[in-house]
Give the backbone structure.
Amino acid sequence: MRVNHRGPRPRSLSVPAGPLFRRRRPSSGETRTGVLARLGRVDRWAFDRVAAARLPGLEYVLPRVSRAADHGVLWFTTAGVLALSRRARLRRAALRGSVAVAVASPVVNLLGKQAFRRKRPVVDLVPPIRIRWKLPTSHAFPSGHSASAAAFAMGVALEAPAALAGPVALTAAAVAFSRVYTGAHYPGDVLAGAGIGALAGLGTRLVWPARPPVALVVRAEGEEARVTADGRGVVAVLNPCSGGGSGGNGRGFLPGNAELAVGLIRQELPAAEIIELEPDQDLDKVFEEAAERADVLAVIGGDGTVNAGARAALKHDVPLLVVPGGTFDHFARALGLETAMQAITAYRRGCLGRVDVAYVAPVSGAPGQEEEHLFLNTASFGAYTELVDRRERLERRLGKWPALAVAAVRTLRHSEPVKVTVDGRPRRVWLAFVGNCVYGSRGPAPTWRRRMDDGRLDVRMVMTGRRVPRVRAVAAVMAGHLRIIPGYRAWRTGGLELTGPDGGLRLARDGEVTSLPAAVRFAKHATALRVFAVCPEATG
């Protein structure tokens, strides 16, 4: 019997028109993997090209540059050299660059490398002459050397002039390139590290805003000062005690800023008359006599000495040439004069502008007849006045900076808030500053301004007496950059009335302490003082 093994007849399949197979669309994860694979191939190709390159002379230079940057030694050494300079702008650049390195380095080495764990390149194509030291064994991505280099270069660029920022940036680029040239990293590692470092440098501005090199002042249109090549007509008053000078007492081992400045003036402006203050001389009387016969009144000293010179210059309507010679020189730096040579250059170019002058006066006198106590930078009362008193008592024995630190600690322990009435409102103020023009720096201790002619007072007060806010407030006085302090209030105004304790009010004006009656008012003389500055801008 025949058995039929065939099953049921299959149905016919309907095949749609078109290609037999369709390409499957890749998922997003596969797309990312493909992109990373292509980037990896490009990265390795670029590394091979650099490894095969022959750059005569650099085989000896770049490995040593790379080695010098190990552990940030190159950058911290550069910061130390800048910190030893007498220019505040360079010191700020050194500090900002060091802070940026301190932020970028742990981000890259502790977080980035552990997160990606990329292996180091194979150095078969790299000539042995470039590999002069043991290759690193840590993970490759991102490059720590490149991060530190970019962080330091960015930090310096935010503060320093182009003449310094440019060479530092070129050195940083050389360090970054050397990491590929010596076989330590792929180019992608270097680019990622440099990006993180640059962001770290820029990020320092969030807590410490970069200050402008020059505050804007209104141009003295139609006004000219008598300028001579040899300085004839310039009468300069020197305070030898400013800027760490010995002041004739033999205590100083090195010449102070003021003594160095007067030496440069004698060389560059030989016809200028120079008056050296004696320890017991009346400062105001000396400036009065100097201003009477001067075409240009020059001041060589710190902010307190400049304050006295400004009073005489205003009274006799002569332009003021500020030659930085003190420790801080806030007013000179606001005008763009950080060195004596810059002041001499501003004089020779006739760069004349007008700035505001603030003052505080007792309200007991007849209107218009009160004795005005001028200030060009800030006036303050409360804990800061006590700090200045204590610092001056300790300064001869300890020196300025140790005396300031000891005075700050004692002020923190013993100072109490002052009961005052501010524009009719009773307050308990622990620390107060009144600034001449609006300051750009945050916190209770103003340090720099964008303009010198805005007609306003910048008022900042810490209205509290508790222990923890005191610590923060003293830190703000020392550093000048704290943004938030409990009890901190700030506002801008054209005038301010203040009534203090019955025994009177002690006020520090531009660092010099003055005793005033209990009731005083703060106001301004707009664009009253003619000064030499670095290329003053017209405000329109």
In short: The chain has a mean pLDDT of 78. The longest strand covers residues 519-532. The radius of gyration is 32 Å. The domain at 373-525 is CATH 2.60.200.40 (Tumour Suppressor Smad4).
